[in-house]
Amino acid sequence: MEAQCDGAARSWKKVCVVGAGMAGLTAARELRREGHAVTVMEQRGDVGGQWLYDPRTDEADPLGAAAAPVKVHSSMYASVRLLSPREGMGVSDFQFLPRHGVAGRDPRRFPGHREVYCYLKDFCDAFGLMDVVRLNTKVVRVAMAQPPPLPPSEMRWLVRSVRVEPDSGEEVAAEEEEEVFDAVVVANGHYSQPRLPTIQGMMEWRRRQLHSHSYRVPDTFRDEVVVLVGCGDSGMDIALDLCGVAKAVYLTAKSMEQAMTPAMSKMLANHADLHLHPQIDCLCEDGTVVFADGTSVVADAIIYCTGYTYSFPFLDTGGAVTVKDNRVSPLFKHTFPPALAPSLAFVGIQRKLFVPWFFEAQGKWIARVLSGRSALPPPDEMLRAVEAYCLAKEAAGVPAKYTHDIGGFNPNETYEFVAKYGDLPPREQWKRELITAIVRDMNDDRENFRDLDNDSESVREGVQRWLCLSDAPHQDVPELLRLIICMVDDGACLVSYLR
């Protein structure tokens, strides 16, 4: 565990959380539990962040090439289903359980995006979070209230916000509001601001170009030839979404060797209108797309599935926090900027991990540091740790843009963080086994892995114990009550509440 300061007097802070998505809501609950006065500012008309589906797109800027921020926050397309099983999601005491027989709910192991939104709404209701969320409130500037240098314990933050029209996102013609907070937690997400490649002829290509941020449904591409740049998660999902609707779909990859997995081979075999090519060499004004191997195709549209960049257009740290090569730095454990800690913190910077379980641990850590129950190392020590971490990544051949992809390169880093800073029960072994099996299935059959039924016996037993939580009246019980689940010989669950 990290250094504890339980003997010290606690300090309750006035904290602003920027964003009411999964990261912001989870952190807000932990901050409130610790006794802090919390205000969550959310620019949209409801909570949910990316999981609040928005059929609108940035029609005037479908590439997302304009200066940040984008007009439409959500990048969710209509057909999205989770890549992670619901058993691996949910916070420790509010699991993402299926709601069978409830209208509008999706009880599948890998549900659609609306089910995650419904879970987050349930989470808010269970813990009274809507009381502290200001909807239709866009944060336009966060800056230190007093000029540095100041000791971290005396730092304050001036948060400037403006009301926006529900649904449209347009700012209301009114004065901006300013409020001073003891601390700010940045949780605005990182799947909104498109990252675009540099391709010869890209600006001269006159046909339709868009980033996957602006993709919603396949119908608008009916009978067209579509080229997808990138064959990561969104590239493969959108390609499958377009098959049978578009005339032809061309996926492109930087490395054909890495892209030609068993899953890709099956996708190509199952869909005659789907093709895989090396990356684009150049684009021609007449609509021709020339690939690196010299082959070409005349296309109607290009969709760039090239990921997103971290963007904090509202945040002014005087250069203490920067984004370069898609690395947010310096951040101690991807959370605290050493020079501004603990009054400024980030939740949700890490990628490819278990959410919101990880956010829960991160929120607990931030809340305890702010109250004085846990202590951070001195700023210079944190800075040295950040520098050593980045050097180790570089030595391992990990590009700077993947600095925060901790789940993709070292999954154990996730478990180590939660164990050291989160004070949460360890991840159950059956859940780890389930995730390992799903990754294997996904690499073998991308199109059908979500609907397979091949759990091991230990996973089946774990799932049955987990499903017994559904037999409880509901999870939104007073926090003074502890839910105890135990197994009896016949496998039935005993559920009892103890004060």
From TrEMBL:
This protein's record includes keyword Flavoprotein: yes
Cofactor names: FAD
Residues in the signal sequence: none
KW Ribonucleoprotein (keyword) present: no
One Pfam family here: FMO-like
Keywords: FAD, Flavoprotein, NADP, Oxidoreductase
GO molecular function: flavin adenine dinucleotide binding; N,N-dimethylaniline monooxygenase activity; NADP binding
Domain of life: Eukaryota
Family per record: Belongs to the FMO family.
Function: Catalyzes the conversion of methylthioalkyl glucosinolates of any chain length into methylsulfinylalkyl glucosinolates.
Protein name, entry field: Flavin-containing monooxygenase
Lineage, highest ranks first: Eukaryota, Viridiplantae, Streptophyta, Embryophyta, Tracheophyta
